[in-house]
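Batch job 17 of 40 flagged for manual review because the log was empty.
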Amino acid sequence: MTATSTILGPGLDDVTKSEASLRRFLHGLPGVDQVGADARAAGLGTRSIKTTAKEYALDLAIRMVDLTTLEGADTPGKVRALASKAMRPDPADPDCPSVAAVCVYPDMVATVKETLGSSGVHIAAVATAFPSGRAALDIKLADTADAVEAGADEIDMVIDRGAFLSGRYQQVYDEIVAVKAACARPDRESAHLKVIFETGELQTYDNVRRASWLAMMAGADFIKTSTGKVQPAATLPVTMIMLEAVRDFRELTGRMIGVKPAGGIRTSKDAIKYLVMVNEVAGPDWLDPDWFRFGASTLLNDLLMQRTKMKTGRYSGPDYFTLD
C-alpha cells in the first residue's frame, strides 16, 4: 500500500460535500519532495532500452499521439490534411500504425469527422475557453456541448487556474463535474473528458498533486499537463507526480485514469523517456493509448524518421514527411 492511500483512508465519498472538507483533503495529501522528485525523474530519464524494445516503443508512441493543431490560422484544408496523416502517418508503409486522435478547436470537429470516417482515430476538441479558461460557466458548457454535438469523442477542458490558486477548490471541482455532464451523448458512450491543469502556472509540485486528485474525484477520464501555450509545459517530474496520483487513485478506488503530457515533447528520445517512466511509476497497464497520450504537433515526424531508420538503416531527409 502506498503512503498516499494509507494516509487518506478507505473512502472519498464525504470529501466533496463541503468546501472545507475538500480543502482539508487536498491540503492533507503528502507533500512532494521537489529535490527528490527531480532526481528520480532525471534517473528514469537515463534508462536505455534494447533495439527490439525500441521498435515496439516507437510504434506504441505513434499510437499514443494526439496529433494537434490549435492555431487561429487553422483552415479546413490544413485540418483535413492533418486528419489524413493521422490515419496514415507514413503512406509508404502500410504497417505504420495510426495515431490515437486528432485534436482541434470545436469549430473544426465536423471537418475532422468527415475526413476520419470510421477509421477508428478519435476526435478530440479543446473546450471551456481554451487556453485561458477565462469565461463564464454557461459559455464553457455551451462550448463543450457544441463540440460533442459535432462529433467529438474526447473533450480537453482547462481548469480555472485563478480559482485553483486562490484556493477556490469547490468552484474548480463543480466546473469539472458540470463539463463532464455536458460530455454525455444520448445515442452512444459519453465523450471522454481530459482535464488540463496548465502545470507551468501551478507554481509547485504540491499543487500539481492537488489538482490531479481534485480532477480525478470530479470525474476526469484523463489528467493533462498543459495547453502547449504556456512554458514550461510538460516535464518529466510533473508527469511523474501525475502518474503517482493515478496509480494511488486506482489503488484507493479501483478506477483507472489516463495521463497526457502535452507541449514540448518533440523527439523520439523524449517520448521513450516518458514511456519508461509510465512503466516504472504507474505500471504496464498504462502503456496503452487508452491510458496514456502525447499531446504533440511535431513529435510524430521524429517518431516516423526514427522508425524508418530502424527499418532501412538510414535516415530520411527532414522533408520526407509532411510538416505540420
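Reviewer: the log was empty due to a logging misconfiguration, but the result itself is present. The mean pLDDT is 92. Unflagging and moving on to job 18.
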